[in-house]
Specification:
Blueprint: E1 2-5, E2 9-14, E3 22-27, H1 29-40, E4 44-47, E5 49-51, H2 54-65, E6 74-76, E7 82-87, E8 93-98, E9 118-122, H3 131-144, E10 148-152, H4 163-173, E11 179-183, H5 184-190, H6 194-200, E12 204-208, E13 214-218, E14 223-226, H7 239-250, H8 259-274
Parallel strand pairs: 1-4, 1-9, 2-7, 5-6, 9-10, 10-11, 11-12
Antiparallel strand pairs: 2-3, 7-8, 12-13, 13-14
Helix pairs in contact: 1-7, 7-8
Length: 287
């Protein structure tokens, strides 16, 4: 089983209609990753704290429809986090967040079931306390048990009060990370070098480069790149999360991956997500 931990929230995305009209859509990087894994046919569980409000019920319904195990989901009466998306001319998204006093911030360290082979963490959940400390403890504990771990920092600068403190904390996570996946923009914000990150612990670092595709560097010194398929982009919401899911679905915790095949699969999956409005990852039958 793959466990995805992190926030589930509601994206308010631009909609057709009056100027400023917004459409609520299920979202959050970890939530989208879990949905994508379910659609790809993986055995996946979601580990988070979700509100008991109407948005929370909708988020749970989306997970169950995708075949995601929700037995690790904690519940609370606090409201659901909201992210207001703004789309650029190229379909790229930026966000404003409403997270004060929301349910997902009160996540508590869980006990995972036997048979977990991989754990994926990232995005807002690693930046917002007190839940961030619980997710960090989960990362350290499961890595120590030999679980394959993926970290996608998916930086949201507006949620990070002290950038230098976050960068220092990020470096402290790396010894517990098997695969670091991040965008070019994340890498630039963090200000580090891939070689330095690899030396700190990860077996490989995958960098997404938008329309230019994906690149991986491994601790053994190998480097592979694939181009992104050409598609008509509706928006890029959920594309990076789909990459997370595709990587986890294709990678084995044991042995050296066929990186060109793995990256190509992830690039095709992400490209399909970009052809649809909102975070709508593909199903296995589409790939």
């Amino acid at each position: 089983m793959i466990v995805v931990g992190g926030e589930a929230l509601i994206d308010l995305v631009p909609a057709a209609g009056p100027p400023g009209a917004l459409l609520p859509r299920p979202g959050g990087g970890p939530y989208n990753t879990a949905i994508a894994l379910g659609r790809l046919g993986a055995e996946v569980a979601f580990c988070s704290r979700i509100s008991t409000d109407g948005f929370g019920e909708a988020l749970l319904a989306g997970l169950r429809t995708a075949g995601v195990d929700c037995s690790l989901v904690q519940r609370g009466p606090e409201p659901t986090s909201l992210a207001v998306a703004a789309l650029g001319p190229d379909g790229s998204a930026s966000y404003g967040f409403y997270t004060e006093g929301t349910a997902d911030r009160l996540f508590a360290l869980p006990v995972l079931p036997p048979g977990v082979r991989a754990l994926a963490l990232g995005t807002c959940s690693m930046a917002l306390e007190p839940g961030a400390s619980a997710y960090e403890a989960l990362l350290r504990r499961e890595s120590g048990r030999g679980v394959f771990t993926l970290l996608d920092p998916n930086i949201r600068p507006g949620l990070i009060a002290d950038a230098d403190a976050y960068r220092e904390r990020f470096l402290g996570w790396l010894p517990y990370v098997s695969l670091l996946k991040l965008s070019e923009e994340d890498a630039a914000w963090l200000g580090g070098r891939v070689d330095d990150w690899l030396a700190a612990g990860p077996r490989a670092v995958v960098v997404t480069r938008g329309a230019a595709g994906l690149t991986v560097r491994t601790r053994s010194g190998a480097e592979h790149s694939v181009a992104a398929p050409r598609v008509t982009v509706a928006d890029t919401i959920g594309a990076g999360d789909t990459v997370n899911a595709a990587l986890l679905h294709r990678l084995s915790p044991i042995g050296e991956p066929d990186w060109p095949e793995v990256l190509g699969y992830a690039a095709r999956a992400a490209a399909l997500t970009c052809t649809r409005a909102g975070a709508e990852p593909p199903y296995a039958s589409e790939l």
